[in-house]
Design brief:
single chain; 7 helices; alpha/beta
Length: about 270
């Protein structure tokens, strides 16, 4: 019995090890130097929230070698939110690898209550228009309710997650869910341990045929009866987007000549 427990412990350890996401790059140490990533010009965050988001953006951005930036503005000049994002990139020259390098920017226009996401260089490839649309849709409910810190956390974590998945693949596929991977790994380990325990305990040779008299057993009667067929029709409603769901915008080119992906919406 102790041998079975030892085998089970080893298999569970292996399963947990396999379930841990691999391929996370620790990033360059130089990128951990102080760099402003949270630009809260609209004053939506408290000092503690800014510090927490700054640390989160630094940590997750280093692992993907991409600056993950939040920029909020009261937009007193009433500029277009997409143009604001492009001008911000040209002016501040963010980039993990170099000035005007890998970066993803969230711009919040509080005057017109619009949000725009843009991915530059590496982020443009890994966070295309479609993926940015998904990120925006996940954070919009929190923006609408005024929970800006939580919305920005969602943006940072989801951007990090999506950038770890190769382009052309649905990043929300359940196969990329960590808990699902853990459950599958534990299931495989359990099946292996169960098989080993079964073999160690010997085979069971008693079955239903052991006590069955074939000469007196059999089917007495068989009957199929057709009742009726029922067809139900149901109208499928089209999804025209939810609250704060103004979508689109796409990518573009900054005045400085930097191409980017993009997603635009209201909240």
């Amino acid at each position: 019995m102790s041998r079975i427990r030892w085998i089970a412990a080893v298999m569970i350890f292996i399963a947990v090890f396999l379930a841990i996401p691999v391929g996370i790059n620790a990033g360059k140490a130089a990128a951990m130097d102080t760099k402003q990533l949270i630009f809260d010009e609209a004053g939506l965050l408290g000092p503690a929230e800014q510090d927490e988001l700054q640390a989160m953006a630094m940590e997750y951005g280093a692992k993907r070698e991409t600056d993950i930036i939040v920029y909020t503005s009261k937009n007193t000049q009433n500029m277009d939110v997409k143009q604001m994002t492009q001008d911000f990139y040209d002016k501040h020259a963010p980039g993990y690898d170099k000035p005007h390098g890998n970066a993803v920017i969230l711009t919040l226009d509080m005057k017109n209550r619009e949000v725009y996401l843009a991915g530059f260089y590496k982020a443009k490839q890994l966070l295309d228009d479609s993926r940015l649309d998904k990120i925006r849709s996940k954070m919009t409910p929190n923006l609408s309710s005024g929970d800006y810190a939580l919305a920005f956390q969602t943006y940072i974590k989801t951007s990090y997650k999506y950038m770890g998945i190769r382009p052309g693949v649905n990043p929300d596929n359940i196969l990329f869910n960590g808990w699902f991977q853990l459950a599958v790994s534990l299931g495989i380990a359990g099946a292996i341990v169960g098989t080993m325990a079964y073999r160690l305990g010997g085979r069971v040779t008693v079955n239903r045929r052991t006590y069955e008299d074939a000469s007196t057993s059999g089917i007495l009667d068989q009957r199929d009866q057709y009742i009726r067929t029922t067809v139900t029709k149901r109208k499928i409603e089209r999804n025209n987007g939810g609250k704060g769901g103004g979508s689109g915008g796409g990518g573009g080119m900054t005045r400085g000549g930097h191409s980017h992906s993009g997603s635009r919406g209201s909240f």
